[in-house]
Amino acid sequence: MLGQGKVADYIPALSGISPKKFGMSIHLISGERFSVGDFKENFSIQSISKIFTLSMAMALDDDSIWKRVGREPSGSKFNSLIQLEYEHGIPRNPFINAGAHVITDIVFSGYSETKLAILELVQRLSANKSIDYNEEVAQSERETGNRNLAMGYFMKSYGNIHNKVREVLDVYFHQCSLSMSCQDLSRAFLYLANDGVMPSTGEQIISKKDSDRINALMLTCGMYDSVGDFAYRVGLPSKSGVGGGIVAIVPGQMSIAVWSPGLSESGNSLAGTFALEQFVNYTGKSIF
Ligand code: DON
CA distances (Å), 192 to each of 44, 59, 66, 133, 215, in order? Predict the structure, then answer.
């Protein structure tokens, strides 16, 4: 499993990373933590960032988000354009790329310094002030992200992107470029295991209801077009990124982050999925 799969070379700045890397971190809401392998090494969190921006958008907005984005699995590649045309510029869910663009557009409208607001939230949740955007990765995506731009302009033609497409996508490319470790990520997502509250600080990041809803969306839409297979094998609300990271939530108990850059056809970490499957087999911690 380890070393197999394909590193995401469609983003040139990610292409040089060894698929043999592997790290895993578990943070319990009690404060205990367990880690193994390359858990301190920073990697590009990519689509995992879509949970941070969705949390921000849900905290900002009421149910009007759901007039602009659906809540159903897409059954298509995360960067597919076809469905968008059939469905009149309304993306299927907030985790496929088009859906994440709409969510970032909502966050962009809500914060004047959007990139700073995202970064501050992530640093606070991870208790790590050194977390930053990777400008080389963001630049690499900007230079090669024609498909993302196409989706952005297409949705703009339906009025579903309110701000300037290039400005929204600049934020999107930066959020995807966030450079974090398994240790940072598993700590950052503890609020989703604890009804929206960071256990260490007591800070309410989102309401309990929104935390439940994000978990539901992760379970049904977080692993792209292999979400059914992933739910069958792992059975935890999870979100992947093409950098090879996956975060998984055991509600009421813990947050897990795993990283290994070799990807499956669907864009999910192969060794990361295998590690989560083994974890659930040994501990019985699936939600089912
Ligand atoms: O926009 C993209 O294609 C990437 N920045 C993010 C894609 C991603 O991580 C999808 N994940 N599995």
Answer: 21, 14, 20, 23, 7
pLDDT tens figures, 205-234: 999 999 999 999 999 999 988 999 999 999
Residue nearest to atom 4 of ligand 1 (CA): 46
Reported as a single tens digit per residue, the pLDDT across 36-76 is: 999 999 999 999 999 999 999 999 977 889 999 999 999 88
The tally of CA atoms less than 13 A away on the side-chain side of residue 195 is 3
Measured in Å, residue 215 CA sits from the centre of ligand 1 at 19
Residue 197 falls in the annotated catalytic set? no
For residues 131 and 116, is the Cβ–Cβ distance under 8 A?
no
Mean of the per-residue pLDDT values of the chain: 96
| Crossing angle of the two packed helices 114-126 and 49-60, in degrees rounded to 10 | 110
Give the pair of three-digit tokens for residue 216.
């539901």
Its pTM stands at 0.97
